[in-house]
Amino acid sequence: MAQFFAVKSIYKNFGKLAALSDISFSVNQGELVGLIGPNGAGKTTLFNVITGFYRATSGQVLFKDKDVSQARPNELAEMGMVRTFQIPRPFKELTVQDNVAVGTLFNPERMHKTHLSPEEFVGKILEGVKLSPYKDQLAGNLGYGNLKLLEVGRAQGPLPELLLLDEPFAGLSLNEIESISEILRGLTAKGLTLVIVEHKLRELMKLVKRVIVLHYGKKIADGNPEEISRDEQVLKAYLGRRWSKPNA
Ligand SMILES: Nc1ncnc2c1ncn2[C@@H]1O[C@H](COP(=O)(O)OP(=O)(O)O)[C@@H](O)[C@H]1O
Ligand SMILES: [Mg+2]
Asked: Of the residues 16, 36, 45, which should be mutated to test ligand 1's pocket, given the most ligand atoms within 8 Å of the CB?
């Protein structure tokens, strides 16, 4: 595969507002990438464009050598690109295991190739996100921390190759962040590619190997956490905002 995932010169305008201007980068299979930037920088808009919730004003999204700029979210999920939402969106009236099972419907062939029964497949995912004890509970009865874990579990139902996570740490305690980071590390160890939008920079920097920085809709930096934490433009963009250095 020549090109696993790339965005090429993405523009997104909302009326006169240029929410994204000329955003380009590529991600190799197996990478663990952070996407950061002050509020309003365009992170969520970029996720929405990549995952087919918005159409770009211009530019391309490439996934596994295909131009998927016009693809819908469900088509992308079938191809192996899945996102999570900052605010968990479970089916509250379904059990925890059925929430994960719903995702498998997007990709029956790929699940079939795992040689696991649907129950075994879902069971493994629940084990991975530490929700096995809650499998028969209604998602609506889960506490917030477990809902964030379920969001990661649900995203694995379609057996994605590229997973885009919108603020997986939001609202979690440091212990919970450590635990979810460990789960995400485990996923990349199995070959999954992760792009993570996150405001908790210190915790994010401990997890990712590469960070892309947006500011006012433009890409201002792309490098490893060490480089990013010293980058003049990045520091300026965050001036007056809370910035925590990695390993500080
Ligand atoms: N649906 C929309 N309609 C109009 N403006 C929007 C819409 N979504 C986002 N914006 C604007 O685009 C800019 C980027 O927003 P967003 O992508 O949510 O930033 P971030 O996620 O980095 O905080 C902001 O100025 C925001 O107000
Ligand atoms: Mg956002």
From this structure: 45
Query: What's phi and psi for 198, nearest 5 deg?
Result: -155, 140
Which CATH architecture is the domain 27-53+72-237 placed in?
3-Layer(aba) Sandwich (3.40)
User: Where along the chain do its domains lie?
Assistant: 27-53+72-237
Q: What is the mean pLDDT of residues 6-24?
A: 98
Which atom number of ligand 1 is nearest to the Cα of residue 197?
21
211: left (phi over 0), alpha (psi -120 to 50) or beta: beta
The response to whether residue 38 sits with its C-beta less than 6 Å from ligand 1 reads no
The 10s digit of each residue's pLDDT in 150-174 is 999 999 999 999 999 999 999 999 9
The pTM for the full model equals 0.92
The residue whose C-alpha atom lies closest to atom 11 belonging to ligand 1 is 19
Q: How many Cα atoms within 13 Å fall on the side-chain side of residue 20?
A: 26
Tokens of 177: 């962040």
